[in-house]
Amino acid sequence: DPSTLEFAGRLIEGTCGNLEEIDRVIVRQLEHWDLNRVSYVDRAILRFSTFSLLYQDDVPDSVIINEAVDIAKIFGTDDSYRFVNGVLDGIRKEKARS
After folding, report:
1. CB 93 within 8 A of CB 58
2. What's the CA gap between 30 and 90, in Å, rounded?
3. Residue 50 burial (CB < 10 Å; 0-12/13-18/19+)?
4. Residue 79 CB: number of other CB atoms within 10 A?
5. Residues 33, 83: contact at Cβ < 8 Å?
């Protein structure tokens, strides 16, 4: 589907193009964790979801977080979805305060 490919391309380009800022935002939510210690799958989910939270105003934050949690349930470890939910909810709250 062309619209799906277009959306995926924007998501990938946007995430890669803003990676330093995205990682800074994620790291602010990690308590006693280094981003490099986060699994590759969880890190990828956090990165593209953080991009969406910060730069895609046409998608509600709750939808972004719910989708990320669902993806973490499928592709992450047993506890990934809780971790992803907590980090993204913190980013959502930080965004709401600014």
Report:
1. no
2. 9
3. buried
4. 10
5. no
At residue 33, the pLDDT reads 85
* CA-to-CA dists, residue 82 to 14, 17, 67, angstroms: 25, 27, 13
Residue with tokens 């470890």: 77
In the block, tokens 């989910």 appear at: 45
List pLDDT tens digits, range 5-17.
999 999 999 999 9
Q: At 64, which amino acid appears?
A: I
Mean pLDDT score, 47-74:
97
- 32 — alpha (psi -120 to 50), left (phi > 0) or beta? left
Give this prediction's pTM.
Answer: 0.93
Taking residue 49's Cβ as centre, other Cβ atoms within 10 Å add up to: 26
